[in-house]
Design a protein that fits this description.
This protein has 3 domains: 27-88 and 543-577, Urease, subunit C, domain 1 (Roll); 102-246, Diaminopimelate Epimerase, Chain A, domain 1 (Roll); 333-476 and 494-514 and 526-535, Alpha-Beta Barrel (TIM Barrel). A hairpin with a 7-residue loop joins strand 1 and strand 2 (50-57). It has 22 helices and 24 strands. By secondary structure, it is α/β, with parallel strands linked by helices. Helix 1 packs parallel to helix 11 and helix 13 (366-378) packs parallel to helix 14. Helices cover 34% and strands 21% of the residues. The longest helix has 17 residues, at 246-262. This is Amidohydrolase family protein.
Amino acid sequence: MRYWFLVVMVACLAAVSPVHAKSEPIVSTYDDIVVYEAAKIITMEPGYPQAKYVAVSDGIVVAVAQNLEELAPWTDGRRVTVDRQFASQVLMPGFVEPHIHPMQTIMMLPLPFISPEAWDLPGRHYPGVTGEEEYEARLREALAESEEELFITWGHHRLFHGEMTRQKLDAIAPDRAVVIWQRSFHEIIANTKALELLDIGTQEAFVAEFDRPGIDPSHADFATGVIHETALFNGVEKLRPYLFSPQKMQQGLVEMRQMMLENGVTTSADLAFGGFGGIEAEAPLFKSFYDQDDTPSRILAIPVAPSVEGDPNDWLARTSGKYGSEKFFFSDRVKLFADGAFFAQFMQMNPPGYSDGHEGKWITEPDVLEEQAKRFWDAGWSLHTHVNGDKGADVLLGILERLPEREAQDRVLEHLGYSTEAQNRRIGEMGLMVSAQPNYIRILGDAYARSGLGPDRAAQMNRLGSLERKGVPLGLHSDFNMAPIDPLYLAWVASTRITLEGNEKAPQERLSLEKALRAITIEAAQVIGLDDQVGSIASGKKADFVVLDRDPFESGAKALNDVQIHGVIFEGRWFSAQ
């Protein structure tokens, strides 16, 4: 199955349409200098915060300056081109997306979205859908528009759309194989026809499929057709032929590249490398994709812990030597998982827990999580741990406190949907970093106030202002498709905290405008260990810039979502978003 998957993925790369840009010969001695002029260059460097000119050569920044005369040390005696096409626009560092999943992205993009919020994806718009009747009506419309043997749609959430089970899907589509992917991505719901098509249509076959090491038996329920959390990747394995056809893979790759370009992302990190198709399948696909001359971004591949077999450093040397390149690369960082999904209310919560009495779930049991953390920490690796609830945070912080202190290793909390003020103090005192998912407050702030958490805890989800006050380095991520790959949108959410219903939740927990912009540039780079290369415009760093129609500092936080992106300059080359 994995071999077939690899053949399909690599074959589809040949059909990916390039982003058109003119290739220029690279001269390694900086003999050819391009000077970009802008109305303003926001460097995100505290010692030299703005400029008007930036000189670029060989893919890096050689200098920034207020006027051309100041650039004389780099321009005298060299071949110089002054590019004034951005003279009325604003340059910022290329945005950094510190937590995405490319395999999930290309898997999800071809699917129809039926979710509580509206989505603008390359070439199409999906309106937001709320209410049980409206959801079912849109589902029936999407089914009628599709000829897929197995129809898969994403975005259902019970608090917006009502409960969904195998029996309910059977009533809606008795003659079609249908899978509903829940809004969290951590759960799928299959009807009877779908289970039969996937060869798990009997109780015996279903139980056998999910009776495997590492899978909690309660995470796959034949009666309701629900497969989630530790059982999810086995569910994805069954769906693979329907998700990864050459046509869908091609569409997903093209649209992912366009989405990154349109939203100014030049650097990202894959926080589940190897988790979907295995290292040997995923690495060739993404190496080929990112190594294309016309892909204007790079990615750091951070593996999930179970994918790293044997000695971690031996694994890193082998994998990096076989697949690593300038734009698809590896480092000594690993992804761990604590508790369950925030969008599914599977996060582990301390008392009083959930208002309906249900309990959260562990993706990795605490004792196993501690073993994994110690294994990689002892090998000198940095830890990135998915954690969502305050009970999950207590467990994780306890594990991290028991590790011996080492200055050269990072400990990053990923998502951190709900934490207490006391926990945030511990995070600051321990010198931890956070890569936050701010879209929780936007989508769920009102819904979780009514069901699950209550008004006070729901209002204080994404307690990011608290982290800022404690000096915690902070990145903002999409975890697509938990949020759009759109850093300015993430910064807008974090600095306004305005919900889908238009309510402003816990304004004291808003990020300042400066912190929000740092969290998509220099601090986003810091949480993935790349702030020496990207995240600000400074001599010696990658010449990655995003071209904006206005200065976001002057427009203010509430206008961040209105800032227009014209394209990016990636390693000194211009790529238009149009």
